[in-house]
Write a structure and sequence with these properties.
Layout lengths: L7 E2 L1 E2 L2 E4 L3 H6 L4 E6 L18 H14 L4 E4 L10 H16 L5 E3 L11 H8 L6 E5 L2 E5 L25 H13 L4 E4 L15 H11 L2 E6 L6 E5 L2 E5 L13 E7 L5 E7 L6 E2 L9
Parallel strand pairs: 4-5, 5-6, 8-9, 9-10, 10-12
Antiparallel strand pairs: 1-15, 2-3, 3-14, 4-13, 7-8, 11-12, 13-14
Helix pairs in contact: 5-6
């Protein structure tokens, strides 16, 4: 059950309502629905701790079936589609297997690069498998501006490639930050951002320049929400009017009940419904998102 709200956001019937975002209401003339999942870590190896690698594809299939049934317009994978393999050929086979399932939906898909995506492959090799030209870019749909970011860089500015990095060393470099600032300035309407590593915290799961990147998002006055993965656990923060939703990992836990994925619906009235499935948590929220005219 979804309800239209004014300045409040709360859970109703398993749906997360983020409302009161005037920038969303200003330029979103139609309802937009997309599927969202993260951290599949597909691999042919026994479980390690809470990670059940050989169950990931079955969990992914369930999510994809839900997205098709719900008539999602496109899909977003927030990174770490596969885990590290022993050889390059094995890794290519894992990627092809997972992407084959995803493409079977016949829905457009956008891949955010995660650190495990380039643990064995180079960044270019993964993008070629994904049939995606760039690692960071933006696109428009239904009056909403979507931004895909790439935080798979070291703090020294070197791009992740075939395991030449420590996963705790993650950055959005100056050139990408400059592009982001220009992209947001040129966009007309409400913005949603996708990134693998986290922008809302400090520590090992966070982008080194998270504060600087958040400042760019905040100054634009157009960003409604950021969706991220990487730390595998449900989490949520609101910082200066922007919602930061960290999604549950597909890989975590054994059995269907431990799966996690979401269906996002952007409504013409400005509300954003995040419907969580299985272990994807729901929240009660209050929106204070800025608008382009706000001071």
């Amino acid at each position: 059950m979804r309800q239209t709200l004014s300045r409040r956001a709360y859970l109703q019937g398993g749906t997360l309502m983020l409302a009161g975002n005037k920038s969303m209401a200003q330029t979103s003339p139609q309802s937009i629905r997309f599927g969202l999942f993260t951290d599949v870590h597909h691999a042919d190896k026994p479980e390690v701790g809470t990670r059940y690698y050989r169950e990931s594809l079955t969990k992914l299939e369930e999510g994809l079936a839900t997205f098709r049934k719900s008539k999602a317009e496109f899909l977003v994978c927030l990174g770490d589609l596969v885990d590290a393999a022993r050889t390059l050929d094995e890794e290519r086979a894992l990627v092809a297997q997972a992407m084959g399932l995803i493409r079977g939906t016949q829905l457009p898909v956008h891949f955010v690069l995660g650190n495990h995506c380039v643990q064995t492959l180079t960044k270019q090799q993964f993008l070629e498998e994904a049939k995606q030209k760039r690692s960071y870019y933006s696109f428009e749909r239904g009056g909403v501006h979507f931004v895909v970011l790439d935080a798979c860089y070291r703090k020294d500015g070197v791009s992740y490639d075939a395991g030449n990095f420590d996963w705790k060393d993650t950055e959005i470099p100056a050139a990408e930050q400059s592009w982001l600032q220009q992209d947001l300035a040129a966009s007309k309407g409400p913005v949603l951002v996708f990134v693998h590593q986290r922008l809302d915290v400090e520590g090992v799961h966070a982008v080194a320049s998270a504060r600087e990147v958040r400042a760019i998002l905040e100054r634009s006055g157009k960003v409604a929400a950021v969706f991220q993965g990487h730390s595998h656990q449900n989490d949520y923060r609101e910082i200066d009017g922007i919602h930061y939703c960290t999604m549950r990992a597909v890989i975590e836990g054994s059995g269907a009940a431990n799966n996690g994925y979401a269906l996002i619906t952007l409504q013409p009235d400005g509300s954003i419904a995040l419907e969580g499935f299985r272990a994807q948590r729901a929240y009660q929220l209050v929106s204070r998102a800025k608008t382009p005219s706000s001071k």
